[in-house]
Amino acid sequence: MPNYLAIDAGGTSTRAVFLTHFGQCLGYGTSGGGNPVSRGFDGALEALLAASNSAVGDARAPLAAVTLAMAGASLDLPTHLFQERFVTLGLTGQAVIESDLLAAFYSGTYQDDGYALIAGTGAVAARIAGGRLAAVADGTGWLLGDTGSGFWLGHEVARAVAAALDGRGTPTALTNLVLEDLGITVDPDSRTQGRVSAQQQLIVKTYELRPIELSRFAPLVFAVPEDAVAQQIIARCAAALAQTLRAVVDPAISGPLVFGGSVLTKGGTVGAAVLTQLGQAGESAGHPDGAFKTEPALVADGVVGAAVLALKRNGEMVDATVFERITSSLASLRG
Amino acid sequence: MPNYLAIDAGGTSTRAVFLTHFGQCLGYGTSGGGNPVSRGFDGALEALLAASNSAVGDARAPLAAVTLAMAGASLDLPTHLFQERFVTLGLTGQAVIESDLLAAFYSGTYQDDGYALIAGTGAVAARIAGGRLAAVADGTGWLLGDTGSGFWLGHEVARAVAAALDGRGTPTALTNLVLEDLGITVDPDSRTQGRVSAQQQLIVKTYELRPIELSRFAPLVFAVPEDAVAQQIIARCAAALAQTLRAVVDPAISGPLVFGGSVLTKGGTVGAAVLTQLGQAGESAGHPDGAFKTEPALVADGVVGAAVLALKRNGEMVDATVFERITSSLASLRG
Fold first, then answer.
1. What domain range is B266 assigned to?
2. Hey, which end of chain A has fewer CB within 10 Å, N or C?
3. How high is the pLDDT of residue B332?
């Protein structure tokens, strides 16, 4: 009976799982970033093979197919270049690239219709119909959108602190947290040429970072739950994510809702606020938010979904029992 | 009697004026960007000397002093390096760097107390007291602030269009203007992997630009006055600029209000909206907005102010008559 290899290739880490056609996970491996867009083709391939080698181990069992879950921009890559390299691992069939959004969705469900909302470094929502991406909203990157993402949160924190320092914005406990994070210690009342000295230092230190590194300030917003400015940023984050999800809802498609990404899955503050914004998910089938038939499933990454896709795309049946087998046997391997 | 050279060194262009101690402008010259931070020291110096040579012409009259108006970050530069080079132009005294914010303020008034609000590529407000910068708000750059600037406007336009394309945002006439500007012509209903194709193209084209180049979209917001999304962006721009100005107001300091930068001085839409936000400038002395004693003076650049500073800092008297002499004689030279 055929075995499969499923890989979740992210920007900073890669996960691979080796599994049977009935969803029993036999081996698991990880490595560094496996995204060809950010790592380059050779670096990404190296990461994919490293994780895959760990997963397959000494088995070298024939692999009926390899499923590679990657960010959207990778979908046009020449898959035969991947395929050739996987022959050494025992691949007899095809290497197929699938969207990381689909992998995130299928990490929370085995059903073929439903919705995913992901807020990690970026932010994106998708409607899945018949096992395919039917609509995608946001995921437009840090400059054009990704509203409600980790970058967005960190950026809003930095802007709120800059505004608080010169009196444009409300004073906030975030100021000390950001200044401390950047190692800025100056007399808060000191000014040079009219400008608050701490703000001048903030400017210097911030522009030394790459813009995307502002996401480092995102966790600070959850560190001061009593702070009004932090609360407003979280509320706007949740409102934006709810709006992104609403943009992909089609009342004709109902199914599970999957939440992914650290902003939605860690701490629970933003996830709960998004559900409040949506006015209680699953309220009624007539209501647009009635499209979500379950409480959101929280997924940490896309490796379960890559495994589900490996089976489904190769004609294997994935029902509740098989899905449960994948998740529980993988959890054992991950320890 | 002493003559002076005053230079307004901007990021993209430099203006120099040669004038007498009683404010009669004798020569005027321009050149390219004269900011040492963006151009490098040698490139900036070359631009400064080119504009100065044009201004001084064949006169080579003794120059009692040179005043260089430059962006804040230039204030710590070693002025003796400038000074040495200006000796060839007849400089006998000092070369002194002054803040471009002060030069903008003094381009609209000869008084020593008051306020300036500038919104060009960046956005910044200042309170001037006793001829010095007493408080500065914003001017924190495109990533941390500059809220209401030309970059901010262009960025908001791009984000609004990205959101409109996938249904997160309200449909807007800005969409076609932006897509046209970027040469994007695709079937508006076409999707690939769930994503609207026009949005995918927008992402590709936008990330090919340097972030700051998004300011190219700023003028579009004024091209569709009936559009609700454009109106909201303009309203938020004006609200932010009013807030930036409020942050520097000290009820104890009242005086003229000077508006600079293309966002505030071209078209008039934003300037008028800022004044509305402030609740009629000059309403009453008790009201914080009563700090502004005049309707705003609109200034195109800082060269008049550099001239005013050249005289004032060297003990020359600048009253209404001298100020009027500077502006009218300079206007004649500029033709």
1. 114-146+236-299
2. C
3. 96
